Fold this sequence. Notes:
With 447 residues, the protein is an alpha/beta fold. The protein has 16 helices and 15 strands. Strand 11 (372-378) and strand 12 (381-386) form a beta hairpin. The longest helix has 18 residues, at 119-136. Pyridoxal-5'-phosphate (PLP) binds at residues 118-120, 123, 152-154, 226, 230-231, 259, 261-262, 287.
Amino acid sequence: MSLARTRDVPSVPNDLQSYWIPFTPNRAFKKAPRLIARAKGMHYYTTDGRAVLDGTAGLWCCNAGHNRDPIVAAIQAQAAELDYAPAFQFAHPKAFELASRIAALAPGSLDHVFFCNSGSEAVDTALKIALAYHNVRGQGGRTRLIGRERGYNGVGFGGISVGGIVNNRKHFGSLLAGVDHLPHTYNREKQAFTRGEPEWGAHLADELDRIVALHDASTIAAVIVEPMAGSTGVLPPPKGYLERLRAICDKHGILLIFDEVITGFGRMGYAFAAERYGVEPDMITFAKGVTSGAVPMAGVIARKSVYDAFMNGPEHVIELFHGYTYSAHPLACAAGLATLELYREEGLFERAKALEPKWADAAMSLKGLPNVLDIRPIGLVAGIDLASKPDAVGRRATEAMEKAFGDAGLMIRVTGETIALSPPLIVSEQEIGEIFDKLGKVLRTLN
Ligand SMILES: Cc1ncc(COP(=O)(O)O)c(C=O)c1O
């Protein structure tokens, strides 16, 4: 017997058992798998050849649509030219080119880009930069991080510590020490069926002042929020809320981080949500849309003053002891450059902005359907809350997802009892109609 072969080769090569699927009920899935074989434009195709209209841009990432020719060609060419270059002490030209392109899209003085490979890494990177920033400026006492209830900032220990989703936190020990949370901004009584930013809720930013009064500003490094909380069920920011948060951070010398992993690259009708709201954070995290989901890539965009704070001391010494083997991977950079070019050529951010009123109208057409408690359209995103079945929270939305995929040929995303929609930005008006038509039919069949 060969030493190398310690296990029997499975007799069924496509056995579903070995793959431990993330954020998925594995046993239920493996009994009735939803398998996707290929994609093009606005559609997925299942392994048995059915077309499924993509209402979610994959997982909020395929903003340019699927398998777009220029992105595919750029990845193919890059794979043949340079597979990998060391990310530390060496670099390759496309990393600089992509950083410059992203910096040009970012607002104001946010002009330095640190690359990583996932939104979770981007969040942990931004939190570490914030801590180190205060440290190198002689304010090492600023160690406290402030997140927000119902925030989703990925699944690293930093991200789940500042994040505010109980199931993502409760099994994982004591998390980071010294973290506080702002209250979330959703109130159904005050905000139900609002298009875009709700009128009620800006005052919730003042809770930051309360937290500062409790701990003192000299202990607080940074505040991190999603400008629009996506994964927790689509919570648009109340009018004036982000401006107020910025002002309070400024007053106390606290860094403000926008987690734009979902809202970046056109989802809100602008390159970044920071631009939509006219609020300039100190750092922006991005991922997903930067390569339209084609190759994993993410990063942190930092203000010049944040970068400059590190550029002291002897020039031969590493300024920030942080990075990943695959930071600025050549395939990801090639995909990113082709994706940004496609966004520009096709005006996809502007397209999303122009479509927003029609998208909102179509979403609101589901008002009055059985079990629909709230609808929240914003940018090219919509959250639809369903009433829960007694003792089975989340079951009704899951049934909607299963029926949409199986019967209606529509991909939707569910989180708790909320359906979240976020189509590729190439979606046509006719396809917007199709998405809500199909979803309406599904909702009418739910019991
Ligand atoms: C706001 C936000 N931050 C971070 C993440 C984590 O990204 P990833 O799954 O790439 O680690 C997500 C993922 O949806 C997100 O929505």
